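Internal ticket - ligand job 586, magnesium ion:
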Amino acid sequence: MRKGIGVSPGVVIGKAYCIHEIFVNPKTRRLAENKIFAELRRFELARERTAADLRALYEKVASQVGAEQAGVFRAHETILHDPAFTAKVRERIVDHREAAPAALEHVLAAYTALFTRMEDEYLRERLVDVRDVIIRLSGHLSPVLAQDPEGGSGPLILVASELLPSQVVALGMREVAGIVTQSGGQTSHAAILARSRGIPAVSGVEGILRNVKNGDTVVVNGSTGHVIVNPDAEAESAYRKLQREFVHLKDVLAENRDLAAVTADGTAIDLLANINSVEDARAAVAMGAAGVGLFRTEYLFLTHPNVPDEEEQLTAYRAIIEASPQRRVTIRTLDLGGDKTIPYLGHDREANPFLGWRSIRLSFEHPQFFTTQIRAIVRSAMQASTAPTDVRIMFPMITTLEEMRRVRAMVHRVRRALVAEGERVAELPIGLMLEVPAAAVSIESLLEIVDFVSIGSNDLVQYLMAADRDNPKVSHLCQPLSPPVLMVLNSVIAACNRAGKPVTLCGEMAGHPRAFVLLIGMGLRSFSMSPAFIPMIKDLARHLTIEGAEKILTGAMRLKTTNQVNQFMADQISRLAPNLRPLDSA
Ligand code: PEP
Ligand code: MG
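stdout (structure tokens):
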């Protein structure tokens, strides 16, 4: 049994489907003598296709962002055509009779060994580019997700080093029942995507790809963080029983879909969904969300073959608005950097990416690109539909008052320009994502110039605790129920309520039963979470009174450690809603 971090609750058993960066089919790893020529041809074809991709990327990025930023794709093309590189691959195919993917795997390993020995840091970092080119090439040889896992049909457990958004999109059609990744924590892509689909998932299982192969039976317990490869008959049957109980509980909760989201004493609670795509918007409707509290636009960019222009963005935003509950959507501008990067915005060499050039800071540096996005969002609010819409715009990772003033001015400029172009423009509330401790400290002055606040607790917790949200080694610190985090949340929520400004919390803790009760006690009434969590939170709200939540909060705020708060809250959940115990975890 392996232990990682349970990032999306539930138990599932399925067949492993391993995602290696370069897929080498073991059956065709070695070539027959008479296949060598055809394999060389296949490699050439893949090279031509990769070159075409890189040229298209260059053109699009150069026109949308700037020639300088597009330069990276020129550099990649140079690597692709580098005679030493192509000769090495050909040599592996001809002399070692390796299929092209196996040859690429070998050449990548050789470059990795060579580059990591280099003294010069700049050169060492060029490995990223070489790797990028090789992986792009291998995608044209054997699309990573195209192969059928061994063992036929049935639920699949994805096992990957880390799950990229583009892979998740490519997988959209398949029946993915569980996810296990080697890296990542509670708030990494894989975790967020798994939760939005209600798929049990475990992150941070070091080296798992070495211990599992396609077709192995894998148990994923996303509630406890346990992963078992090829369990014995007794363990398998015990886990099958747990899986049935979990599915049953979810089915029962799903019946709450049409019940009002109210506490036991009749206070209305706004339960919104966090989404990344139209599929998630549909899931939000299916789970009974009242609207979308966070649409993360970066997935549109991360999964696009090049750069979505204004019209493409407009179409995508409009589709999201149309698909969302009550056409109510809060759209967040690009939040790249940190763990989410696209090569053309140029941020691959930072010692501290989460403290560096990410999110709004990156957007400010690309004014044309940023303005295009704001234009598309403002236009989408108007053009979405003939039916009424409620579209808002919010900006991530705001740190200072000046930044907030600057984005407000940008939105107003865009509105004026659109009016001058003869477009009808809707009113659009402008909000701030509260994710940086400095903004929490200066919330009073920020509140004077924002229409609403959305607390991004995933980032707020990592910055308050100085503990990387994706690093399993410090996950014991990156805890939303730690006393200092609770104190800051309490004071921010109180400040927003005093100022009469709407406040939502859209970090992952909104969908955690223990945190939900405490946040209700703090006076929060609006929550945005992965759609799959909405039925459970609705059920919990209906077991809870405001007075009861306030008492629980008072008790929790007296405690001094995260462990104490967790234990106290586990007891409270067992008492309030014993039916939800299987879904409750720290
Ligand atoms: C957050 O930081 O809490 C948040 C919701 O944004 P993201 O997880 O996309 O950084
Ligand atoms: Mg964030």
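Auto-summary: The chain has three domains: 2-19+156-164+175-232, 33-141, 262-583. The first strand starts at residue 2 and ends at 3.
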